[in-house]
Amino acid sequence: MLISLEKINKQYTVGGEVVKALDNVSLGIEKGEFLAIVGPSGSGKSTLMNILGCLDIPTSGKYILDGITIEKAKENELSTIRNQKIGFIFQNFNLLTKLSAIENVELPLIYRGVKQGERRKVATESLEKVGLGERVHHLPTKLSGGQQQRVAIARALAGNPPILLADEPTGALDSKNSKAIMELLKELNKQGHTIVIITHDLEVANLAKRVVQIKDGKLANVKVGGKK
C-alpha cells in the first residue's frame, strides 16, 4: 500500500466555532493506481489534498505514505517528504514566467542538489515525455494553456516521485486541452506512475480508474471509473 489513511479527522476553529473539514476518512491507494477524488466546493476535497500532499497534518488519525508515518513528522521532515515523494500539479500551472520551460522543470532538482548536467538531462527527458521536446526553451508566456500544464506535469515528473498529486489539473483549460491532459495522465499511469487527481468535474473524474466522492468531509460512493 503506497498510501494509507485511517480515520482521518481535520478540524479548524473559525470565529470561535469548530468546523470539521474531514470526518473519519479512511482510504487506501496502491502503487500504480489512477484515482480521482471528486466533490463540490466546500466538500473537504482541498483539505484532503493538503493532507495527502503533506501540506497539512490531520487533527487525528493515521497517515502512512510509502512507509512513513506522516502525522508524527516535523515540519522539516514534511518538507523533505514533499520534495522526494510527491510531484504536485496545480490548476494554475505555477510556472515562473521569466524562466524557460526547461528551467522551470529543473527547479525541484535544484532543491535536491542535483548537478547542472544531470538536471538538464532529466528535465529534457521529462519534457520529451510530455510531448514538449521541441519547446524546451520557450517561456511560459509563449506556450498555450495546455502546453503550460504539460510543463507543470514534466516538472512534477522530474524528481521521479512515487506519486503525482494533481489539483484540478484541467480547471484552467478548455475541453479540448482538458481531454489531452487527461489522456497524458492516463498514459503516464500506464507507464507505472501513481496518480491522484482532485476535481469538481465528474466527467474528468470518470477518466480515472477509480473514483472516490467526497461530501461534507466524508467519503462516499467509492467506485471504478466509467471510462478506461
Automatic annotation (TrEMBL):
Residue stretches making up the ABC transporter domain: 3-228
SMART domains for the chain: AAA (SM00382)
Recorded coiled-coil stretches: none
Gene3D superfamilies linked: P-loop containing nucleotide triphosphate hydrolases
A cellular component annotation (GO) from this entry: membrane protein complex
SUPFAM superfamilies: P-loop containing nucleoside triphosphate hydrolases
A molecular-function term among this protein's GO annotations: ATP binding
Record key words, sorted: ATP-binding, Nucleotide-binding, Transport
PANTHER family (UniProt xref): CELL DIVISION ATP-BINDING PROTEIN FTSE, LIPOPROTEIN-RELEASING SYSTEM ATP-BINDING PROTEIN LOLD
Family per similarity comment: Belongs to the ABC transporter superfamily.
Protein name as it appears in the record: ABC transporter ATP-binding protein
Organism: Priestia aryabhattai (Bacillus aryabhattai)
